[in-house]
Design goal:
The chain has 434 residues and is α+β, with helices and mostly antiparallel strands. Helices cover 35% and strands 11% of the residues. The strands form 3 sheets. Strands 1-2-3-5-4 form a 5-stranded antiparallel β-sheet. The protein is globular and about 65 Å long.
């Protein structure tokens, strides 16, 4: 905002591009009060960019994810590939995610994914729920209503994010919260400056509302931030948020590999089992589990590496500290408990999650589509036998783990070592690990 200070309004409009003015206007919602600027210095906004601001969800801040990457949108360093007929018009609004290109210098571009937390339709229902919770008209200031809730008032007074502050939120991520996990959320929350402390002293009221809203709607962007791929976690890189959209590195959906040749199918399946193993056993002693799986939840980068594309159905159990909150009492249910779900939904006990859960779901839903009918006998028969055992709910944890270990042993030699698998080539020539 510094270019505005002491500037002559007319000269300012002549010197600075219209796009910058529009960017400043679009980001105005991220400040506590647009009225802090003199009326003569508030730039006019074209109606076409007012639509863009609405499309991104900036008009709903601070009931949004954040604004850390808005500058790139309005500097046109994020562009929607083949979707925008004009740089002043946003893409269709009925999609949950969009393919886009991202640049740091406006010369070199790389593919990214621009995603909503939930569909536009679900967001509209959620906003109406917020208005209805305060007996307000269908259109209301949702931020004002959320700020008045008892839960948010507790957040305002809190110096540390504790399990009682998230109790009753519907996300699987918060089904079994430990203090260690919540400290990690605060310490690594990327939408605030000066991250690194377990205390929320550096959080503004706006920051706390954005974090609470994100956790209540979909914890996917939070999981990307606190378990980054750069540290070896099987997740795409979180690049930032703008309004109700987040931007992450792009992957191809798993279902695009259902018809892949045998050696590629074997590679993808082998990686998938490896990812599940890392979710069950890792240095930080967290156990990650899926409440359900489908092919959209996993993706493959251009280098052939498989990652978790969508972490919204991912829960976390702290095997080191255990859960520090008891769910199911109904005492902590409020408007944040049912923004995108049925208010009456009860989360079951963490004790019901078994070590085999991820493997059974993947053996039932994904691996048959990748592996059945791809290989000559007797290899195919061995694969089918292992899949049959690991897909049975009645199988014990040890039986499922044994079947999937056997499946990995079968798949390992079926993978080829060639440039198509850049994530492990040419290392696979010299190291049996790959």
């Amino acid at each position: 905002m510094e270019p505005l200070a002491g500037a002559n309004t007319a000269a300012f409009h002549q010197r600075w591009p219209v796009r910058l003015l529009l960017w400043v206007s679009a980001l105005s919602c991220s400040f506590s009060s647009p009225a802090s600027l003199p009326p003569s210095l508030v730039p006019r906004v074209r109606s076409s960019y007012t639509l863009g601001r609405t499309f991104l969800g900036l008009d709903k801040c601070n009931a949004c994810i954040g604004t850390s990457i808005c500058k790139k949108f309005f500097k046109e360093e994020i562009s929607f590939d083949n979707l925008m007929t004009s740089h002043l018009r946003p893409p269709p609004q009925d999609l949950t995610s969009y393919a886009a290109n991202y640049s740091d210098d406006s010369k070199t571009w790389r593919p990214v994914e621009v995603s909503r937390l939930v569909s536009k339709y679900q967001s509209e229902i959620s906003d109406r729920k917020i208005c209805a919770s305060a007996s307000a008209p269908k259109t209301c200031s949702i931020e004002r209503i959320l700020r008045k809730t008892g839960r948010f008032q507790k957040w305002l007074q809190a110096k540390r994010l504790t399990p009682d502050l998230v109790q009753g939120l519907p996300s699987p991520f918060l089904r079994c919260p430990s203090q260690r996990l919540l400290d990690r959320v605060v310490r690594r929350y990327a939408e605030v400056v000066d991250a690194g402390s377990i205390f929320m002293d550096h959080f503004t009221d706006r920051d706390k509302l954005r974090l609470l809203y994100t956790l209540a709607v979909n914890a996917h962007p939070i999981i990307l931030q606190i378990f980054p791929g750069a540290e070896g976690w099987p997740l795409p890189k979180y690049l930032g948020s703008c309004g109700r959209f987040l931007i992450s590195t792009s992957t191809k959906p798993l279902q695009e590999f259902y018809d892949a040749p045998p050696e590629q199918a074997a590679d993808v399946a082998y990686q998938l089992l490896g990812v599940l193993e890392s979710l069950r056993s890792n240095d930080l002693n967290y156990f990650f589990y899926f409440t359900h799986v489908d092919a959209d939840m996993f993706g493959i980068f251009d280098n052939g590496h498989l990652f978790i594309r969508d972490a919204s159905a991912l829960g976390v159990i702290d095997k080191q500290e255990g859960s520090q909150a008891a769910f199911g009492t109904g005492e902590n249910e409020d408007i944040f408990s049912c923004l995108v779900s049925d208010c009456q939904v009860q989360l079951s006990s963490c004790d019901t999650v078994s070590e085999k859960q991820n493997l059974v779901l993947v053996c039932q839903q994904l691996l048959p589509r990748l592996l059945q009918g791809k290989f000559p006998s007797p290899v195919q028969e061995k694969i089918d036998s292992a899949l049959s055992l690991c897909s049975k709910n009645a199988s014990t944890d040890m039986e499922v783990l044994g079947a999937t270990n056997l499946l990995k042993d079968i798949l390992r030699p079926l993978r080829t070592c060639d440039p198509r698998f850049a994530y492990r080539y040419p290392d696979c020539k010299y190291n049996d690990k790959f």
